[in-house]
Amino acid sequence: MAQDTRWTRALTSDHSVAFIAGGVAGAVSRTVVSPFERVKILLQVQSSTNAYNQGIFGAVKQVYAEEGAPGLLRGNGLNCVRIFPYSAVQFVVYEFCKKQWFERGAADGHAPLQMQNWQRLLSGALCGGCSVLATYPLDLVRTRLSIQTANLASLHRAKAANVARPPGVWELLVNTYKNEGGVFGLYRGVWPTSIGVVPYVALNFAVYEQLREFIPSSVDPSWANLFKLTIGALSGGVAQTITYPFDLLRRRFQVLAMGQNELGFRYKSVADALVTIGRTEGFKGYYKGLTANLFKVVPSTAVSWVVYEAVRDLMQA
């Protein structure tokens, strides 16, 4: 009986609740928008090629025609394996930071009801950085798995055997580790990823928490969920649009050494990549795939916040 009580306390602790609720929220939200996630990556990694040039829904239709329904979800299983700890770490760190700010305020003689915006931004930035470091190798492999069977013009010259049987997750991890510099290879692109994810997560948390204050406390629960969906969509859309060029860099650095760089990217650094994209692809090059990404991010962020709060409330009931 005592052991059951300890397990119950452990599972209902603030950290456990945030971890489980955050992980479930991440997995559910990403699965809902998986086809748009795949299409976004394909659009991001085609530079001068136009294998997918029929718009978002045209690209989804093309992937379905070439690879069937499984093609729309390719990489999603690995993405869920990655996103569970990725999302869980974000919410655990954010709730931890929130608790620290409140305790510090109480120690100073006043107990704030809400964090200030700069505290939200700082807490969001910290949880974004922690989540990237904890799960980045899986993100890199997921990106490569997503484009492995795609009809990108320069990759279409690959050996037929490789196209017919794309390597699995473990094989990709091992090959990347062996052939691309060990741990360094597994973290290729982590810098542009971090400078994209950190401000994105910071803005997402700050905007959501700020807008959440406008939900009336007496509102009906069903309407409250609608409000949360709306402000979650707004926070995700605003944050992603502002930080999108770094998300594009993140994907391109991740495939830089893939297949002897058959996609043709030649970037020496983040600054060099920004200059090169501007020179060769114009301003639009920085936002290639943005529309597809918003189709993914807006509903994904909205669902993530609603699921997180629902699971959290259920576990704490």
UniProtKB/TrEMBL annotation:
Subcellular location: Mitochondrion inner membrane
Pfam (any one): Mito_carr
Chain positions of Solcar repeats: 13-100, 115-214, 223-314
Membrane topology: Multi-pass membrane protein
GO annotation, cellular component aspect: mitochondrial inner membrane
Main location: mitochondrion
Gene3D superfamilies in UniProt: Mitochondrial carrier domain
Keyword Mitochondrion: yes
Domain of life of the organism encoding this protein: Eukaryota
GO BP of this protein: transmembrane transport
Keyword flag Transport: yes
Alphabetical list of InterPro entries matching this protein: MCP, MCP_dom_sf, MCP_transmembrane
Keyword terms of this UniProt record: Membrane, Mitochondrion, Mitochondrion inner membrane, Repeat, Transmembrane, Transmembrane helix, Transport
Similarity-based family: Belongs to the mitochondrial carrier (TC 2.A.29) family.
Name of the protein described by the UniProt record: LAQU0S02e07646g1_1
UniProt organism field: Lachancea quebecensis
